Amino acid sequence: MIIHILNGFVYGGLLYLVAIGLVLIFGIRQVVNFAHGSLFMLGAYVGYAATAIAGFWAGVVAATLVLAILGLLLDRAVFRPLQDQDPIVTLLVTFGLLLVIEDLVRTVWGKDTLTIAMPDLLSGTLRIAGEDFPVYRLFVILVAAGMGAGLTLWLKRSRIGLYVRAFASDPLTTGTQGVDTERVSAAVVALGAGFAGLAGIIAGPLLALSPAMGGSILIESFIVVVVGGFGSFSGAFVAALVIGQLQNLGIVFIPSFSTMIPFLLMMLILLWRPLGLTGRAA
Amino acid sequence: MTLLSFDAVDAFYGRAQVLRGVSLAIGKGERVGLLGRNGVGKTTVVNALQGIAQVGRGAVVMAGQPAPRIRHYSAARAGISVVPQGRRIIPALSVRENLLLGAAVARPGPWTLARVFELFPVLKERQHTPGTALSGGQQQMLAIGRALMANPDLLVLDEPSEGLAPVIVDELAEVFVRLADEGTSLLLIEQHISLIRRVVERYHIMSKGMIVDSGPLAQLTTEKLKQHVAV
Ligand SMILES: Nc1ncnc2c1ncn2[C@@H]1O[C@H](COP(=O)(O)OP(=O)(O)OP(=O)(O)O)[C@@H](O)[C@H]1O
Ligand SMILES: [Mg+2]
Question: What is the pTM of this model?
Answer without folding.
Answer: 0.89
